[in-house]
Structure formats: structure tokens, C-alpha cells
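Listing S7. Sequence submitted for prediction.
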Amino acid sequence: MQVQWSHSVLKVRDIEAMTQFYCDALGFEVADRGTVGADAEIVFLSGSSRDHHQLGLMTGRSDGDQGSLDHMAFRVGSLDDVKQMIEWVAADERIGDGAPVTHGNAVSVYFADPEGNGIEIFCDTPWHVPQPVVRGWDPGKSSDHVLAGVHEKFGENPGVMAMDEYRARRAEHFGEEESTS
């Protein structure tokens, strides 16, 4: 299994100020925003058609927090790779169980390293789904069944489209010659 760096999510105290900073400093734009759970707000930032978000900013950092990292995310090539990671996480005594999650545009497992740093291992799905959305999935089912279930859960949501169409629209928006799939 080969992993590729994808994105980080930071916990922040002032989400509007931090959003403005990263838009000004790195030329990012808001790709999506919404709430997670009962009261956490999240903003997804990107400057590329390839990645829905390159940085996520989420409320919830308190003054006493030493660090701001919520999680680091790594892309793998297939759902079978994600399932392989779930098996590895379950067998590793240094860490707890992983949480299989889908956001519609990705199928993931979240877990923490031995010092509590959050990690997400994910593969892309063929669809863009406006964020944030979180649902569980069953790693015991076949990859085809999992993807069919993801499409069934999210396919009728407003804004859902083929990932190729989403990337083409974003490539045009960013003035990229062509979307890099």
C-alpha cells in the first residue's frame, strides 16, 4: 500500500480570523463549511481542483490546548487498502480500534497514533459530496457493496456530482489548464 499526503485539520480558536489568514497567506478559497456534531464549525480550504480541501479549520481549540492538530490525512489507492489499514489498526496493541467513516467523497478509517495524534487513511469515491457529512460504513462488506451504499446514502443530496465534473469546474475556476485526476 502506498500512501500520499492529503490534508490536515487544525482546531482553532477564531475560525473567521484563521480562515482569512490562510486565504490571504496561501491563496486558499473556502470550498465548503458547516457544522460537525452538536456545535463544532468546520471550514474546508483549497487552492486546487485536485483536492476538495488541503486544509480544514475546526472550532474547539481551548486556551489550555498545547496543540492544534485534529488529524493528518493520507490518501491510498483503493478501498481494499483502507480495509487493510483497518485490520492493521485492530491488530496493533499500541492503539485502539479505528473508526470506519465515509464523507461521501471518501471512504476512511480514523485512528490515533500511540501519542494520540489523529490519522485518517482514505480512498476517494467517484463523487463530490458537499461537506461536512459523516456516516459509518461496514468494512466487512465487499468494496462494491460499500461504494454502492455510499452512493445510496449521498446520491440524492443537493450538490452531489461526479468527481470528474467537480474537478473540471474547479480547474476552470482556478484557471488550471486541465484537472489532474
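Caption to Listing S7: primary sequence and predicted C-alpha cells for the chain studied. DSSP finds four helices and eleven strands in the chain. The chain has a mean pLDDT of 91.
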